Amino acid sequence: MQMPIPDARVLALKADLAARLRSVMPADAVIADPSETRAYECDGLSAYRCPPLLAVLPSTTQEVSDVLRICHAMGVPVVPRGSGTSLAGGAMPTADCVILGVARLNAVLEVDYADRIIRVQSGRTNLSVTGAVEAEGFFYAPDPSSQLACAIAGNIAMNSGGAHCLKYGVTTNNLLGVTMVLMDGTVIEVGGAHLDAPGLDLLGVICGSEGQLGVVTEATLRILRKPEGARPVMIGFDDNAVAGACVSDIIRAGVLPVAIEFMDRPCIRACEAFAKAGYPDCEALLIIEVEGSEAEITHQLSLIAAIAARHDPVEVREARDADQAARIWLGRKSAFGAMGQINDYMCLDGTIPVTELPHVLDRIRQMSAEYGLDVANVFHAGDGNMHPLILYNANTPGELEKCEALGAAILTLCVEVGGCLTGEHGVGIEKRDLMHVQFNTADLAAQMAVKDVFDPGWLLNPAKVFPLDVSEERRRGGGQPAPAGPRTSGEPTGALRDTSDQKKGLAAA
Amino acid sequence: MTPASEDELAEVIGGAQGPFAVRGGGTRGVSCDGIALSTVGLSGITLYEPGALTLVVRAGTPLAEVERLLAAEGQRLAFEPCDMRRLLGTCGASTIGGVVATNASGPRRIQVGACRDHLLGVRFVDGMGQVVKNGGRVMKNVTGYDLVKLMAGAHGTLGVLTEVSLKVLPRPEAVATLVLDEPDAARAATAMAAALGSPFDVTGAAWVAGRVLIRLEGFAASVDDRAARLGAALGADRAEVDWDAVRDAHVFADRPGDVWRVSVRPSALAATVGALQAGGAVEVAADWGGGLIWVLCAADRDLRRDLAQGHATRVRGAALPDVPRFQPEAAQIAAISAGLRQRFDPRGILNQGVMG
Ligand SMILES: Cc1cc2nc3c(=O)[nH]c(=O)nc-3n(C[C@H](O)[C@H](O)[C@H](O)COP(=O)(O)OP(=O)(O)OC[C@H]3O[C@@H](n4cnc5c(N)ncnc54)[C@H](O)[C@@H]3O)c2cc1C
């Protein structure tokens, strides 16, 4: 993975910068000792590491503003960090950056059940947001598998999803407002406890901007009343593609479960060993959850069972009690960890149209054979968000590279069938150089124009998301080139699914 | 001008000095100076996959055509795009591009979200004549920045939409409405909050003409069950209600005066109505559990003077010199919005002033 060469001018500023930062925040909030900055050298994409120049842990929005103002004045890049669970390298430092961690900003600021909102500081973990409201029967819907550890800050930056997004949407659909600090220290309020934007939907573009537009310090989130009940059913198949077809039929039939999750045999075995959930031993397993009153649950499960029956399942089994339901979900949510105990793996995150599931699963099997690397599949099937896990041995020279090549080929396939490179993990550094596959020059320029407005000097997390060659001028110039003139080139046009320009981009990449 | 293709549109915008007044169906009755640039030549369904719940459609396609197509497959646009013709006294036929550009969303906003939450992808021509795409046609997509949301509700000021991709949802088997007579705003808000805070999956909570209206949708047996239990809890009865009339604010359709949409946190309904009334006679109706207040007031009034929180948009009424249609933004936010417009439309030729 190529990263920009650290800026020697910035490296030389270390002592001076640390002193200035210590003048605006407690001494223990500025970490400069290399043995301690090492704790921030990577995120969940741990194959890539680099300790930062410094790390700071502010406790207030004011401190965040002070830090950014100082870094801005000295021209020092800043990489925001929540809990460091990103699987895309979004929070990975560069040697010449300050890591700004929001872990100390973890308070609940306001809960209002009549308005169904909670306002929290952004370092608070996802699960503890629900923790703050569940005694009253409420919850915060987006539930990434990492929810015990990941912070709302990271969820907003990555627009994270989770197993139950099929019904409740992802972070952006549950975010009402933020307090955000711009790179020059300006504090802005966007949105709030009301439902719509007075002007342009800035909140919509802030969510998912991967820490490149500002540092989010507070968030207003939508909370929902818990359903009366929920029950998962497990449906086993002896063929991946058939399981995929079953998913598409369920959706087509107008049943909308809260979650439809998919695991193939390697994942089933690893998760079963971990969670003892009673997963059937089969080629492909769907975990489908429905919720509502007892009558509603029974009705929906009977519809699902009828559809599944047409696909020759080897097993259909409802959770018999709350304990087994919890184990079924524990197993699924621990899938990455469970696989990690057995093997090194690289986790992909492409999304495809649900109707393409059988075809894509088939192609992945062929590609896996061609590259000689096993691929295990575990993913959110209801919305087509796939997580193929490519298994490799990090100690075998050349295998990481082979794994990356297979990953790129699978993601390219996702785009070709009408999907995208990443459904919930974000681009970070991991998919940065594949952006050409999905977007042409004009598409990328339009996105970078947004960063030009929020962060004209390109100091916030600058080496992420956009291919380095594409962003080079901006990063280096520390400024924004004038807007391009009128259209000159004949960029290809056509339907949203048109990939002609994408293939061309890939050849160039 | 009515370009017949995205390419032609790009050429028109790239080659001209403008300014342009972009127009879909013209049902909003909003205009600005400039050459009329119609999107109705960009019409037609590009792709509809009921099994993937996705629809890709060109921006100038009539909304009615989209709705017919979906209905034939038992599906719908769940965000309930409104039809403002009766309220505004306009004619014409809404286009899907106009729906997206105004982020038009109905009562189901509280449960499934707004148009922006169902918009999966866009193609547009920016103010320099460049074709840009963002998002795609899949449900989950975080590849790059989300310009899709930025374009929803940008009223054509950042670019002219040429194609949009939308998430569609199954039409429910049954609908029921619970009705409660409640002339008092505070008690109406409490009743709506109780319904929305229940586990019964409420898909509409409005307060119109002294009645609280609560909508439930889903499988018939489930709707009956939930309606019975929620009805008992609220002391409300089932009745037939025209939710399209709620969505389109028909209560104020044939009445003289200006109409505003006020957005507040739902629990502020009563206080907001009280403050508006203190400043002069108003009539109100509420949607979104109290979070959206429709206000009918005298034609020359600046409603914002009496607004303690939230924001207000004037949807009907003649232009007033110092009272813009859209709520003025805080200085730093206004600077960002201006910066984005400058980047996407550096010559300022697209729908100039429409969001002012
Ligand atoms: C085992 C495992 C399972 C996972 N499962 C899921 C899943 O189911 N669904 C899913 O979507 N993701 C999942 N993830 C990925 C990851 O947990 C999410 O991306 C998460 O939102 C990251 O949150 P974080 O607080 O750890 O952020 P970090 O990793 O610290 O940072 C992520 C990004 O956010 C930016 N950022 C952090 N704080 C701020 C801030 N205050 N302001 C602005 N930008 C900021 C960073 O710069 C970085 O770009 C999983 C990860 C692991 C390790």
UniProtKB/TrEMBL annotation, chain A:
GO molecular function, one term: oxidoreductase activity
Chain segments carrying region Disordered: 470-509
Keyword Oxidoreductase part of the UniProt annotation: yes
Keyword terms, alphabetized: FAD, Flavoprotein, Oxidoreductase
InterPro entries on file: FAD-bd_oxidored_4_C, FAD-bd_PCMH, FAD-bd_PCMH-like_sf, FAD-bd_PCMH_sub2, FAD-linked_Oxase-like_C, FAD-linked_OxidoTrans_Type4, Oxid_FAD_bind_N, Vanillyl_alc_oxidase_C-sub2
Domain of life: Bacteria
Ranges where the FAD-binding PCMH-type domain occurs: 48-226
Matching PROSITE patterns: FAD_PCMH
Protein name listed in UniProt: Glycolate oxidase
Keyword Nucleotidyltransferase on entry: no
Species the sequence originates in: Loktanella fryxellensis
UniProtKB/TrEMBL annotation, chain B:
UniProtKB keywords: FAD, Flavoprotein
PROSITE patterns (alphabetical): FAD_PCMH
Pfam families, per database record: FAD_binding_4
Keyword Kinase: no
Domain FAD-binding PCMH-type: 1-171
Provenance organism: Loktanella fryxellensis
Coiled-coil segments: none
MF annotations from Gene Ontology: catalytic activity; FAD binding
Name of the protein described by the UniProt record: Glycolate oxidase FAD binding subunit
